Amino acid sequence: MPQASELLNAVLWLTIAGSVLAFLHILATALGNERHLHDLRVRVNTLRNMQFERLRRQQDERGGGGFDVVDDASTLNSSNKKAA
Fold first, then answer.
1. Residue 52 and residue 67: Cα distance in Å, rounded?
2. Overall number of domains in the chain
3. DSSP states of 5-48 as a string?
4. Phi and psi of 82, rounded to 5°?
């Protein structure tokens, strides 16, 4: 029959092993989420560039004047500063 110290050591090592596995799982999940977020940002920028080019081509076809592209982030930041 195993002694109490052997059982305690086994429980301790199982707890440590479980903690390491849990940490690795959390790390892998966080990295996967960051990769997914990066892919979404790349897709959004691609779509934004496609929309810009489509609008530019339409404007050229109509023969009208140009249009200005406003950066969303700077617009939001300036409006937030005015409100504060």
1. 10
2. 1
3. HHHHHHHHHHHHHHHHHHHHHHHHHHHHHHHHHHHHHHHHHHHH
4. -65, -35
Burial level of 24, CB count in 10 A (0-12/13-18/19+)?
A: exposed
Residue 58 lies in a domain: yes
> What pTM did the predictor assign?
0.57
- Give pLDDT, residue 66: 59
Q: Domain for residue 69, yes or no?
A: no
Two tokens at 70?
């406003």
pLDDT given for residue 10 in this prediction: 94
Range of the domain at 53: 4-62
